[in-house]
Amino acid sequence: MRYQLAPLYCRPWTLNGISARLIESHYENNYGAALNRLNVISREIEQFDFSKTSDQSLARLKRDEIVALNSTLLHELYFASLGGDGRVLPDALASAIAKDFGSVDRWRQEFVGIANGLAGGSGWVLLTYVPRDGRLINQIASDHDQSIAGGVPILALDMYEHAYHLEFGANASAYIAAFMRNIDWSAVQSRYEDAIKVAPPRPLEQKQFADVPSISVEEVREMLESGTSVQIIDTRPKHYTTKAQDIMEGAVWRDPERLDDWIGTLSKTEPVVTFCVYGFHIGCETASTLRKAGFDARYMSGGHFAWKAIKGPVRLFDDGALVNSRLTVTS
Predict the structure, then answer these.
(1) What band does 6 get if pLDDT is binned at 50, 70 and 90?
(2) 302, 203 contact by CB (below 8 A)
């Protein structure tokens, strides 16, 4: 693939406190060099002879490719971030930033603080929208190959010394202040509006259990920590429990194949949470059966291993896990 140079987005002569000379040098010598390097690497990959060259050489080329590609993408975003009145944000974007950071001032303090922390070193400061979480986040990209997977950067500040040393010398703070004065917020908002249209990663769907409510492991932990009375049933298959070493603290194990034998020991006045190994089938099926019998039952998403992944408390799986048909957790 032959990558094409993007025209300079901002108008250098209009910038307040950043000279056209600095922008021109940055654009030509750094962005241009990155693009040329990317095209050289791209040609090498296209001509790569798999029969004569090692896989390690290919891996090196792919590492070099992502560095060069991200360098071009981030430089294009950097130039596209300049050219406006950085003091005034459109209302919609100001509201979005305030929602995710508490206030525009707090966002600005964090963004500038990160930049000052990189002064004298290298890296990028990015305002990035993360579709999975539906929110904005400030991030550092210490190298060109660092990014938030799935994130959509909408504002970029280049803190590599090549971006400011020619004009500002070691006075990175003055450069940062000049950048902040020149942010083109209308362009940033346009990119934000595009970013929020990106769908988050598709969540796990179990269509056969679409009518069975779930509960996250975090929500279960909050219930336990708040002292909410809840009946927690470990329904991992019996054959699995023979090799199980631990069980969730506050849970009792019940054989899912003998539900009719123990369903009568549960209370219908307190919620029930069921779970299995990974949260796919048995915990869901058990919760579904309990709901049909009139219980307020939900299955715990992710099951036993999700609970362990959030470092939820567990205890040794022994005879103590099998006693007491019903467990009520209180504070």
Answers:
(1) confident
(2) no
Ordered structural domains, the chain, with CATH? 12-195 (3.55.40.20), 207-321 (3.40.250.10)
**Alpha-carbon span 214 to 278, nearest angstrom:** 13
Q: Could you tell me which of 50, 77, 92 has the C-alpha nearest to residue 158? A: 77
Specify the pairing of strand 314-316 against strand 251-253. Answer: unpaired
CA 238 – CA 329 distance, rounded (Å): 24
Polymer length of the chain: 331
- 315: tokens are 């205890």
Query: Where does residue 261 rank: exposed (0-12), middle (13-18), buried (19+ CB within 10 A)?
Result: exposed
DSSP line for 145-178: T---TT-EEEEEEE-SGGGTHHHHTT-HHHHHHH
DSSP string, 37-104: HHHHHHHHHHT--TTTS-HHHHHHHHHHHHHHHHHHHHHHHHHHTBSS-TT---HHHHHHHHHHHSSH
Query: For residue 326, what pLDDT is reported?
Result: 38
Q: What is the model's pLDDT at position 328?
A: 40
Most confident of 185-189, 202-206, 208-212, 322-326: 185-189
Q: Amino acid identity, residue 201?
A: P
Residue 207: per-residue pLDDT: 87
Confidence of residue 115 (pLDDT cuts 50, 70, 90): very high
pTM: 0.72
User: Would you call 307 helix, strand, or coil by DSSP?
Assistant: helix
- Overall average pLDDT of the 71-82 stretch: 91
pLDDT score of 211: 92
3-class SS of residue 232: strand
User: What distances in angstroms separate CA 110 from CA 140, 192, 313, 323, one per listed residue?
Assistant: 11, 19, 35, 53
